[in-house]
Structures are given as C-alpha cells and as structure tokens.
Amino acid sequence: MSPFAGFPPGKTRLTPLPAAFFSELLPQIEHLGELKVTLYAFWFLDRMEGDLRFMRFTDFAADERLMEGLAKTNAKAQVVLRDALQRAAERGTLLRVAEAEGEDADALYFLNTPRGRAAVKALQNGDWSPQQITRPEVRLALERPNIFRLYEQNIGPLTPLIAETLQDAEQTYPIEWIEQAIRAAVESNVRRWRYVEAILRSRLEREHDQANRGQSQKDRRRYVQGEYGEFVEH
Predict the structure, then answer these.
(1) Cα→Cα distances 57→52, 83, 85, 229, 230, Å
(2) What confidence score (pLDDT) does residue 9 get?
(3) Checking phi first, is residue 50 left (phi over 0); if not, alpha (psi -120 to 50) or beta?
(4) What SS3 state is found at 23?
C-alpha cells in the first residue's frame, strides 16, 4: 500500500455530504464495498450539472481507480460492485430504476435526496428520458488539479507570460512533481515560480545523474563480463 501524500495546499474542491450520512447512514454500513460505492456516487453526482443527475452501472464500472479499490482483478471487482450497488439500493441510499428487466447496464441510480426522488418521479411520469441528458465524463483519474489552477491557488495571479511558462513546465515535468514542488514552496513560504522551477530542475538533474550512474555500471558490467572480459583486470 502506497502512503497518502496528503491533501494539496490551497483551495481544493470539496464534495458535500449531508449530516444524516454521518449520523444515520454511516453507522449502519458494515460492507466496505457499499461504503466506497456510496461515497463515489456522492462525488460523481456532485460533479454533474442540472437537476436530472443519475448514474448507470457502467459509470461505476468504467472508473479504473474505483474498480482497483474494490478488488485486485476486474472480474472480482465487477462482482463486488454489483453486490455493493444491491446493498446500497436495498438500504435506500440509492434509488434504482431499471429500464430493462435484469440488465445492470440499463439501470439508473439516483441518490435518495429530494432532487433524486423528484427526478425518479418525473422519469416514471414520462417527463424526461435518459437519452435526452448530456452527461460529462467523470473519472477519479481526472480529478487532479491542472497546472493553471495549482498556480493561481498557491502562487499568484495568472498572466499570459506565466501561462506560457507553465505550459512549458507541464511538457517537461510530471504533474506530480509540479504539485510536490508547489507544496514545498508553500510550506517554505516562498510563493514564487522561480523557486518552484529551481526545485523541479534540481530533481530532474538528480534523476538524470541516477540514470547515468546506472547506465555506466551496466556498461562496465557488459565490458568486464563480455567478449573481452578475460583480458580485463578486475
């Protein structure tokens, strides 16, 4: 298990949860899969727009990070997901509306909130159809903040020159490095891009040095142990 690096500095987007989730629902949930699926539904639906917010089985199943957290293999994760959704629906946390009998992919899931109950009632009355709703792609892997937002939240206002510099940095360094360098700058109370860039350059140089040392050792072994190895003193 890899350790959690901590929540990023600066303002981050929050996912609201009703107080009743903690006081009434959380104490009842004993199944870890049900808890993960329930929290994921709150997160997913909060990132949609409009009053008609729903999920399908495929929305859960298509998120690789969610599925990896449910089981080690995708086949086992599918089983856990179906069981977790069934538990959440039986508990009443999620409202399940099947468009076709017995088809998981055709089932719609709504949170059991006033908005969710109103959407289900309108659907059953024929006031709207799922095919009419344009739904944005929502994935856990896409939740990472982009470099512009990271800069504005932690360093300062974005200018055209800075934007160009940030784009170059994004092409040069992994976004994880940039996040960590900005976090280090904030913790050091040095909110300047030059400071962040110095951290990134230093890390890149260390990576190159380590790679070169590894290659040199590999070349030496090839030379010593290779065709002319018997002529080399070692």
Answers:
(1) 17, 12, 9, 61, 65
(2) 59
(3) left
(4) helix
